[in-house]
Amino acid sequence: MSSQKQWTVLNSDNDFNGLVLGDAPVPKCGENDVLVKLNAASLNYRDLIIPKGMYPFPLDLPVVPGSDGAGEVVEVGSKVSLFKKGDRVTTLFNQQHQYGPMDPLAANSGLGGVIDGTLRQYGVFNENGLVQSPKNLNDLESASLTCAALTSWNALYGLKPLLPGQVVLVQGTGGVSMFALQFAKAAGATVIATTSSAEKAEKLKKLGADHIINYKTQTNWGEIARGLTPNNEGVDHIVEVGGAGTLKESLKCIKFEGIISVIGFLGGGDPASQPVVLEVLSKICTVRGVYVGSKALMKDMIRAIEVNNIHPVVDDKVFTLEQTKEAYNYMWAQKHFGKLTIKID
């Protein structure tokens, strides 16, 4: 156990060619640290845009990529009190974000960005940067929780908690949207989902989506979504992953005092296509940026996952650690449905 296989992002100006697999020493365990044999990881859009030079948050290259990981504790430091050898654990995205609002220290502690991440066989983490994996999930499922699931939970519960009977709109079929759909249905909410294909629409129906809109053929989906809400009042929570490409439509269907949680910018970031800030005033709504979430929120989320026996939507195709670059290309081509996972031997 002296050496291991790990991926490294060497630079952010050479597309996925800057992503390299090599041998590295197994990291040493400090007195407050936990050494984890990583059994699984999952990818996020963030992982793809880091080597492409498109990531707008702090980076410290070269870095081991990947924020999402799950595995088994194989060693603990002398002062560790939260975990023991043999525990099943899952990583926390921002290692310093323990509770409460985001602050600069927490924002600069993201795994796979400024701190070595999970696309390797072994990782050392401060004990505060891990949580116990849900009892009802396997490692591949648990590895999908770190970023997408916690971001979704924060969107629905981090500011104004979702209530039964409210309406939630999710966009597309990526990890964040799928978790938001599952959490919303577990809470007794009505879910409107947008998608681009009939095939994905069928999968969304099976997951419990109450209404599905094809945004390719129904480009005015904001107005259509509003028409699906009680008394045409609008949507209570929108999990906004498209950014500039979809925010205009989201503003058309948000309810007075509703919340639009901005997660990403999959729809592009052209400033010319972005709504003006004053539209938020005319809609009397809150638009908030969500940067994953705290450990306290993650523990709440895991309790909900266990109590409701929620299982993440994981793509049928599972890659090995050696196939990570293939996984990047597969996800970049948007061939995945839900979370894309990597099995680590």
UniProtKB/TrEMBL annotation:
Q: For this protein, what is any one GO molecular function term?
A: oxidoreductase activity
Please report the stretch or stretches of sequence annotated as the Enoyl reductase (ER) domain. 14-342
InterPro entries according to UniProt: ADH-like_C, ADH-like_N, ER, GroES-like_sf, NAD(P)-bd_dom_sf, Zinc_ADH-like
Q: Which domain of life is it from?
A: Eukaryota
Q: Pfam families, from UniProt?
A: ADH_N (PF08240), ADH_zinc_N (PF00107)
Q: What is this protein called?
A: NAD(P)-binding protein
